[in-house]
Structure prediction request, 253 residues.
Amino acid sequence: MDSDYFEKRMRELEYFHSLRCLPGTWIVLRLDGRGFTKFTARAKFERPFDGRFQEYMRTAAQSLLEELQGLYVFTESDEISIVFPPQWDLFDREVEKLISISASIASVAFALASQLAVQFDSRIWLSASQEQVIDYFRWRQTDTTRCALNGWCHWTLLKEGLQPNQATAQLTGKTLTYKQALLQERGIEFDTLPYWQRYGTGFYWETYEKTGYNPHLQRHETTQRRRMRMQDELPIGEAYGEFIAALLAKSLV
Ligand SMILES: Nc1nc2c(ncn2[C@@H]2O[C@H](COP(=O)(O)OP(=O)(O)OP(=O)(O)O)[C@@H](O)[C@H]2O)c(=O)[nH]1
Ligand SMILES: [Mg+2]
Prediction:
């Protein structure tokens, strides 16, 4: 067989390899821990929230921001969202690369930090609109609060001896007020629980000035440096939208 022809035929079957994220769009990668309900139970992490688990998630989020040079990364529960500006062109915006490499980075960072074998999946969210990116992050933050309240109620009822299906039945269709009251009756004030549990944690780049001595010129000089900043008390609601808008705007100047 003609080897060039053979090579071409084989390459053609790498069917998705030419897929790229649309030019000029904002890209968000969302990563999620695979089977973390079972994994966190096996590894005996505290329920519904464990500070150590959160540290490992933060390590994975920071690693993504660093390796992929994103604008902003947000983490809550077992998920991480990272946003890239329209002009970002790492890996030529190849879909296969973005998904597989981001999942590898998060899995390895979490696994090395925790010494536990884990996997993350990854998906791509695209939009040409800056407003939609803001909505995206507000959506994930709202989901964080909803899941935190449900998680606290669920595990509180289980600790009282209910079976998972009984706890689910008791909570299904109930209002936020009902759920908050359920916790309050048991001495848990939802509004005073740690911020990161209710609203997530963000990381972004900030610039700062560093003064050092230049031995060649024999004088002190001030240079602009960049460092990663953690925000574990994120603004909420509209203020969170403004916070995201300001970060996105910085990438377009
Ligand atoms: N114990 C404990 N569990 C946590 C913590 N943070 C997240 N989780 C659990 O992680 C799970 C995340 O849920 P999902 O992503 O919907 O479910 P999953 O089991 O990971 O399944 P897939 O994502 O579909 O693979 C939930 O069961 C959470 O309770 C934590 O701090 N402590
Ligand atoms: Mg998961």
In short: The CA atoms of residues 57 and 204 lie 15 Å apart. Residues 15-199 form a domain with the Alpha-Beta Plaits fold (CATH 3.30.70.3000). The beta strands are 26-33, 72-76, 79-84, 120-127, 201-214, 219-231.
